[in-house]
Design goal:
This protein is mainly alpha-helical and 236 residues long. The chain has one domain. The protein contains ten helices and no strands. α2 packs antiparallel against α3. The longest helix has 27 residues. The chain is globular. It starts with a helix and ends with a helix. This is Probable membrane transporter protein. Belongs to the 4-toluene sulfonate uptake permease (TSUP) (TC 2.A.102) family. It comes from Lederbergia ruris. InterPro entries: TM_pro_TauE-like, TSUP.
Length: 236
């Protein structure tokens, strides 16, 4: 394993996740696949994302919209089995192509100032889509990010509610992985070695979060969405 590349991946992904509430899997997974098998890369990502959410949950508690979080969770429960069926019976490269096109088009519309009103049914739908993408392609973040961006949600509420939701969705996903796919020693040893890097990333991510205002936060969001869409378009 290339230790230097591993350090850079985990450090930058941790900073991104801590400062924005999303992005660890988007940034880390493609590069971890250069070092590990798909199963190992996915499970390392899930473990470390859970660590970040657990470490921040007390600090972000005041920023969590618990009513929206509850609807996200209920929606994702319906979406998780749908995503599993898609994974089992649908051609994943074509699914990634479709998702990438949707993300890129919606991101361009958001950049062009398209906005939507936040409603309870839309909260359930966003959670359901997140659950579906978690078990189908391992990316719960894009639906929530697109939804929150479209509703002009404040960065504090976006980060807090998203990180709290990840505590649920990533834990369930990790359990599904371990039960139905299995795990190995490499995953847990590598995750253990990565923990000091995660905590360094937590420190610098908190500093970055306090530094960026709402305007730059939104620009950061668009960049990550565009990166996600392009990555899914290429990675087929």
């Amino acid at each position: 394993m290339d230790i230097f590349l591993f350090v850079i991946i985990i450090l930058f992904a941790s900073i991104l996740q801590t400062s924005t509430g999303f992005g660890f899997s988007i940034l880390a997974t493609p590069f971890l696949l250069l070092l590990f098998s798909p199963m190992e890369a996915i499970q390392i990502n899930l473990i470390l994302s859970l660590v970040i959410s657990c470490a921040l949950i007390r600090k972000i508690r005041k920023d969590i919209d618990f009513q929206v979080l509850k609807r996200f969770v209920f929606g994702s429960v319906a979406g998780l089995p749908i995503g599993l069926l898609i994974f089992l019976f649908v051609d994943i490269p074509r699914l990634k192509l479709g998702v990438s096109i949707i993300i890129l088009l919606l991101t361009l519309l958001l950049i062009m100032k398209l906005r939507i009103a936040q409603t309870k049914p839309r909260d359930f739908i966003a959670g359901g889509l997140s659950g579906t993408l978690t078990t189908s392609i391992g990316m719960p973040g894009p639906p929530l990010l697109l939804y929150f961006s479209g509703t002009d949600t404040e960065k504090e509420k976006l980060r807090g509610t998203t990180l709290a939701f990840y505590l649920f969705i990533y834990l369930i996903s990790l359990l599904i992985q371990v039960i139905f796919v299995g795990t190995n020693q490499t995953i847990w040893i590598s995750s253990g070695w990565a923990l000091p890097l995660v905590f360094i990333g937590l420190f610098f991510g908190q500093l970055l979060y306090r530094w960026i205002n709402q305007h730059y936060f939104r620009i950061f969001t668009y960049i990550i969405l565009l990166f996600t869409g392009i990555y899914l378009l290429i990675d087929r």
